[in-house]
């Protein structure tokens, strides 16, 4: 066991993350806070301005409360508290739980930032999960406005905690709050940011490998950020093959479903194309139910069953069994998903992203220059990596249809305390 801990410690030291091995202090120690808890519960769509004090970067979350009420209750803030210790953060509420981690909303006692605490339990016999080490090593080198920012890491005997910038919702929740498909302009902004983030990590030779709406965070302003790099992989690491057990089923490309293990950036492009259609149409593009065979049938129903003529080498893939499927002819995307045909350029972009043959899919960098984005300001293409698209004058989200309806029904007038979307 000591050897496991030593190996983990050396791994994190090589990353420059300085994990702590001191006794664990509970992150849930709220009783000692000298203010009523309801003073920390603004309306659900409010976030507080985040300013990272150790590196210059345009922050994402605006401050609708202007910091007035909140700062009055922060007498517990302590200057000089170090990064890397549990006592530097307070847990406010549980946000969700995954297969190997629990996410909490928290606050830093160092600089009053709202943060997201990803707490990973370390099993005694296994030590630090390898996926956590990989996620930390990748995120440490990624600095981009459309990539979630890793602030800090806390390691104790029982847990490993990642401290991320706090972003209050994700694309899945956003779409559930606005059913029936999103405003085309907002889809354009979300999609531009998604491709911008993908182009950045692909230039770094990194594959995300788990694109889905739940892993795309949406800030108060509408900034989209790639998150959850637990399955991400550095393409530069020498490897003949990769795992085929990646990407949630609905967003997994046909080559991986067929057992391919030599994929590249085209893996992420397929997932992004599925998300693109889901944002416009209001439902998943290929919502399989039970297994890989059914998922492939959903795809073949639109794209047609591939052959050696349309996809050289497909017959050599392990799961290629054409006799398992009903005969299918390719369909026009605009007929299958009618909202694509109503937005100029949308159908063509989706068609270029969702190609059965992975080599035929458009790259993220080229997709950014597609005509679908021609109405966006040209200044977006000159932004530094760390600058948000919302720093460009005139770039803002449009109100979604259901927001306009609710506002009209209730006679609401959104002012400086209202949400942007």
From TrEMBL:
Domain Protein kinase, chain residue ranges per copy: 89-373
Described purpose of this protein according to its UniProt entry: Serine/threonine-protein kinase involved in the control of the eukaryotic cell cycle, whose activity is controlled by an associated cyclin. Acts as a cell-cycle regulator of Wnt signaling pathway during G2/M phase by mediating the phosphorylation of lrp6, leading to the activation of the Wnt signaling pathway.
Organism, scientific name: Microcaecilia unicolor
Organism lineage: Eukaryota, Metazoa, Chordata, Craniata, Vertebrata
Subunit structure: Interacts with ccny; ccny mediates its recruitment to the plasma membrane and promotes phosphorylation of lrp6.
Keywords: ATP-binding, Kinase, Nucleotide-binding, Serine/threonine-protein kinase, Transferase
Cellular component terms per the entry's GO annotation: cytosol; nucleus
Name of the protein in question: Cyclin-dependent kinase 14
Binding site for ATP: 118
Reaction catalyzed: L-threonyl-[protein] + ATP = O-phospho-L-threonyl-[protein] + ADP + H(+); L-seryl-[protein] + ATP = O-phospho-L-seryl-[protein] + ADP + H(+)
Database matches in SMART domains: S_TKc
Family, similarity comment: Belongs to the protein kinase superfamily. CMGC Ser/Thr protein kinase family. CDC2/CDKX subfamily.
The EC number(s) this enzyme carries: 2.7.11.22
GO molecular function ontology, one term from the record: cyclin-dependent protein serine/threonine kinase activity
Annotated InterPro entries: CDK, Kinase-like_dom_sf, Prot_kinase_dom, Protein_kinase_ATP_BS, Ser/Thr_kinase_AS
